[in-house]
Amino acid sequence: MKFDKVFQFILILCLLLIWNVFHIGYLYQKDKYHNSLSQNPVLIFSRNNETLDSINVKIASLEYIRKTIVETDSLISNKLIETYDLYYARNILKNFKLPGVMKIYFRGEQFNNQARTHFEVILEQSGSNIEYHFDDSTWNFYRNRLQLLDNIYLYGNLVYLVFFLFITVFLRFHFEIKNDHYWKVFLLAGGRSGTRRKFFLINSVLISIIPFFLIFLLAHLAHFFQYLHFYVDLRIFAIEFAVLIAGCGISALILGERTR
């Protein structure tokens, strides 16, 4: 019987570990896509620097804005001269009015379709003396990747949840049935009838609940000591705990009189 408990304990622990690695992998990949979106700025061009300053003020407090960089015509001219060694053309460049440029970087995790629509409305309300460039191909690529990732995560969790619940119920049922002979001998020898139910509850805690709290503690310690840069949502742990409790409850119902 000791081997049975150790085997179930280790298997449940490993299955929970795999499930949480799946969560962390999802968070890691999602963060990677968000970072890629954050590195893809919108470029706004205008010959009126006051217009760019006005836009900058309007969007400064928006939560999906990471940072803005405004480059005036004089700054752009100086950069061109220094970058391409155009010192001989300095006077020529001064005679041209180059448009100012604003680079707007977004927070990838917050700049969704709704935020983009809101941002474009702000630009449209800023007048007709601006032009802006948005890399739609990059935007669509990463938004589609994020949508695909979310779908994989959702359906992957549903499949794993059903699998995990099945394994939990099967293990308890299989090993309880396997120990029927032991408990029959125990009762014939004068043992108390409620003892098996008591041990079933104790084993449920040892085999299911303790592995859960070990994984929960491990995840928090890894985050606390910065080995893990992603914090798994507490709702995920709540679902895992609920599945374990459900597995124990279903097992008890299937076993019927054996655990009463």
Mean pLDDT: 82
> Low-confidence segments, ≥5 residues, pLDDT <50?
none
Q: Order the strands across the largest sheet as they lie in space.
A: 2-3-1-4
Describe the largest sheet.
4 strands, antiparallel
Shape: rod-shaped
Helix count from the secondary structure assignment: 9
Strand content: 5-15%
Rg from alpha-carbon coordinates? 31 Å
Class by alpha and beta content: alpha+beta
User: In whole angstroms, how far apart are the ends?
Assistant: 20 Å
Supply the number of structural domains: 2
Topology as a string of helices (H) and strands (E): HEHEHHEHEHHHH
Percentage of residues assigned to helices: 55-70%
Write up this protein.
This protein is α+β, with helices and mostly antiparallel strands. The chain folds into 2 domains: 2-33 and 144-259, no CATH class; 41-134, Alpha-Beta Plaits (2-Layer Sandwich). Helices cover 70% and strands 9% of the residues. It contains 9 helices and 4 strands; from the N terminus they run αβαβααβαβαααα. The protein has helices spanning 2-38, 49-59, 73-84, 90-94, 113-124, 136-178, 180-188, 195-224, 234-255; strands at residues 42-46, 65-71, 100-106, 130-133. It has a 4-stranded antiparallel sheet with strand order 2-3-1-4. Helix 1 (2-38) packs antiparallel against helix 6, helix 1 (2-38) packs parallel to helix 8 (195-224) and helix 8 runs antiparallel to helix 9. It is rod-shaped and about 105 Å long. The protein starts with a helix and ends in a 5-residue tail after the last helix. The mean pLDDT is 82.
